[in-house]
Amino acid sequence: METHQILGILLSICSLSLSQECREQLVQDIDFHGSDIQLVFSPDVNHCQQLCTQHPACLFFTYLPADWTQDDRNFYCYLKSSSSGQPGVQNPLQGVTSGFSLKPCNPDPKPCLPQLYYGVDFPGADIISLFTEDAEECQRACTQDPACQFFTFLNEDLTLDVYRYKCLLKFSWPVATLPIVERTAGLVSGFSNKVGTFQEGKPACQGKLFPNTDIPGSDILDLPAASPGHCQNLCSAHSVCTFFTFVSDDFNCYLKGNSIELVRKARDGLTSGLPARFCWPDNSWVNAALEGVNFKGNDIRFELTDDAASCQKTCNEDPNCQFYNYLKADFPDSVFRRRCYLKRSITMPAPPRVAKLATAVSGFQLRNCV
Asked: pLDDT (tens digit, 9 = 90+) per residue, 129-138?
């Protein structure tokens, strides 16, 4: 009971975002002090606001820009929330910018991020390096590579001349990732039918799965997944994943990287498979209703619906919803019965770090700008 009560409190906080008015205007030199829920890194305040918008619980934020001088917290983006939906403390603070989530404004779930950031480095998350004549060509290379989400270009002023004109293409998740997947009686979980469309426009294919098979070793990442098809979707979206293994008992998806050999071993309860990079594999996992499976956390809001099918339809119609939970009429706690919880994760390009570097130019792919 205590767990359900805490969940209800958190979800009521998240649901406040839709009752707020649309407030796009930024607030200069004001700190929304406290109420932090997550620290992320952003090259500018507009990107910070977009991250707040995509984060399921973020209602407002404070951003410390490149020219922040009071300490070394440049490019810090503090995502925030409160039970009232409003910042509890607003302090004057020279140099910071604050603002609000754009969730009430019906934002584009895949925002266009065209700006180039001169003197800015996005350290880490490299997938490919090449040489280009300038930052614009590097950005075009990133846009053409389906795995690239952002990039850093090292210009002709770099001290080490052997690295001049180097273009580093980088990766972050372009598809929805689940926070926690666990078994819970009395509910149904599933996906919006939009989450599997990152391969849209490519030819259909079967998608190679190996039932009751393990591919041991070569793990690069362990993620929660709902099904073998969802695990394949994650592997297909990751730039260096060569195959995967899904464990049905604990909903673990092991992404693996080994381009030398593929060693399969028979093992009950495991499904392995290959990514689909140049085609669109069977998408039935998106439409499946998963009985007794809980996608825990990442709530945007809830509505009352008659059944799980209506809940998925509600998720499909909400541009911000990526997955959902439906608490059935026989859910143990009657307070939560028939609630349809809409959920999402951040899928826009998000560098793991942002730093000053005079000889660098950074930016994002332009595929969302077409």
From this structure: 999 999 999 9
CA-based nearest residue to 41, from 11, 68, 14, 20: 68
Q: Which residue is associated with the tokens 């690069």?
A: 220
The token pair at 126 is: 């490299």
Cα dihedral sign for 243, 248, 253, 256? Answer: negative
What is the pTM (predicted TM-score) of this model? 0.82
Burial of 72 by CB count in 10 Å (0-12 exposed, 13-18 middle, 19+ buried)?
exposed
The answer to whether 150 touches 362, Cβ cutoff 8 Å, is yes
Instruction: Note whether 240 and 148 are within 8 A (CB).
Output: no
> What span, in angstroms and rounded, lies between the C-alpha atoms of 207 and 30?
52
How far lies 310's CA from each of 12, 239, 313, 350, in Å?
21, 35, 5, 33
Could you write out the DSSP letters of every residue in 50-100? HHHHHSSS--EEEEE-TT--SSS-TTEEEEE--TTSS-SEEEEEEEEEEEE
Q: Beta strands 60-64 and 76-80: pairing type?
A: antiparallel
pLDDT in tens, 39-53: 999 999 999 999 999
180-191 and 60-64: which strand pairing?
Answer: unpaired
- For the chain, how many helices (H) and strands (E)? 6, 20
Residues paired with 27 in a beta bridge: 98
Q: What pLDDT is recorded for position 202?
A: 73
Tokens matching residue 237:
């979206």
Distances (CA, A) of 222 to 37, 249, 255: 24, 14, 6
